Amino acid sequence: MKMSGGVEWALHCCVVLTAARQPVPAVRLAELHDVSASYLAKQLQGLSRAGLVQSVQGQSGGYLLTRAPELITVLDVVEAVDGPRPAFVCTEIRQRGPLATPAESCLVPCAISRAMTAADAAWRAALRAVTIADLARDVTSDYGPDTFAGIRGWLAAADGHA
Amino acid sequence: MKMSGGVEWALHCCVVLTAARQPVPAVRLAELHDVSASYLAKQLQGLSRAGLVQSVQGQSGGYLLTRAPELITVLDVVEAVDGPRPAFVCTEIRQRGPLATPAESCLVPCAISRAMTAADAAWRAALRAVTIADLARDVTSDYGPDTFAGIRGWLAAADGHA
After folding, report:
1. Residues 6+ apart with CB under 8 A from B152
2. How far is A154 from chain B (nearest CA, A)?
3. Chain A residues lying within 8 Å of B125, measured CB to CB
């Protein structure tokens, strides 16, 4: 099973955007993360489509979170970039072959599908339990109280607001 | 995020093998599931490498579960076919760019990686909580008490034991 690598970049961008006082251009987020701007733009478009960030147009334009980081979960970001579909797709194998179960007897998902759905729900619940604000708090706790001030300073310097 | 489609076939095979009194040839499992034998053989090889099924050689050879279905979890089968690696791979983005965290300060995984690892653990715990015996019981409960007798009869007919 594999998740899009874009999820990791998108989560880092959201955490960084908690420090932003002004819209942050995509190219600046790319520079901060040392990744190609076009690759990051794709992830930011995913976040924008999902309503997690907004793109502000104009000379001092860029990206901002659309709401408080307490209200954006890790699951929101994962689904924005990687899609909302479960990893397991039931192809109704029970309806195939010489002992096929007739379609009219397949009103509930099969036992295998149910087990997979329950695991998927547990995974999503765990991702829903963590917000971008939690991640930002963990970052401060990991690297010290000045971490976000440093990021804010770097972003402002680029804006000419240093 | 996407899981190998082989997981679904492998789980169906394991459930069917709980009904087997004799080794079941791969080609017979493929016929029962109406899928190409070469495709199914690949999944069975994965199960065999993981020690979940054994291949019995000879004229009445085929596949058998290596242990009681109570002792084979859905997670065992998922990992046998899809590999044991988590869907999320941390690429240490924090060590990149102008504000990079020095490698020597990255002794514990970053907050994003920790959140993903916790969700992965919840997913695996849910899959570990369900055994092949549970699935077989659910199948009986869904389709009636004669379901496995029917499968056993079909498998035995092929063996010439009907």
Report:
1. B19, B20, B21
2. 8
3. 122
Tell which of B29, B93, B96 to mutate to test the A interface (max A CBs under 10 Å).
B93
Instruction: Please tell me which of the candidates A2, A8, A115 has its beta carbon nearest to residue B130.
Output: A115
ipTM for the predicted complex comes to: 0.93
State the DSSP code for B69: G
**Cα(A73)–Cα(A96) distance, rounded to whole angstroms?**
40
Written as six digits, the tokens of B22 are 């004799």
Just give the CATH number of B5-158. 1.10.10.10
Which residue of A33, A90, A111 is in closest CB contact with B97? Answer: A33
How distant, in Å, are the alpha carbons of A108, A124, B126 from that of A121? 17, 5, 9
Over residues A11-67, the pLDDT tens digits come to 999 999 999 999 999 999 999 999 999 999 999 999 999 999 999 998 889 999 999
CA-based nearest residue in chain A for residue B89: A5
DSSP characters over A94-107 = GGSSTTPPPGGG--
